Amino acid sequence: MDAQRAKARPAARRPLAALLLAAPLLLVSCGRAPAARRVEPRVRAVLEAHGAPALPAPPPAESVPLLLVADAAPSAPAPLKRPPGAALPAPEAVVSAAVPFAPGALRDVRFIRLRDTRGAAVPLRAKPLAVWPMGRSIRSALLVFRAALAPGERAIYTLDFGAPPPSSPSQRADGPAPPAPRLAQVPQPFQVPRAAVLDEALLPNPDGPIAAVLPPSWYAASLVSGPQLPAMDDRRFPGFEAGIEGALARMTPAYDAYGVSCAAPYRTYYDGPHALYQRFLRNGDAARYRRARAEAVWYRQHELRFSPDRRLAVHVCERDDWSPAAPLSWQVLRRMLGQGMVDDYLLTGDPAAREAVLAMGEALRQNQAALTGGREDVLRVTERNMAWVMMTLSSYYALDPRPELLSTLRGLADRTVAWQRQGASGAFEHDLTRADPSECERGPRGGSPFMTALLVDALMDYHALTGDPRVREVVARAAGWLAERAITSDGRAFRYLWGCETDAYDDSGTADLNLLIVPVFGAAYALTREPRWIEVGDALADVGVKEMLVKEPKHWNQAMRAFGRYLGYRAALSGAASEWQRSAGRQ
Question: What is the C-alpha end-to-end distance of the chain, expressed in Å?
Answer without folding.
Answer: 45
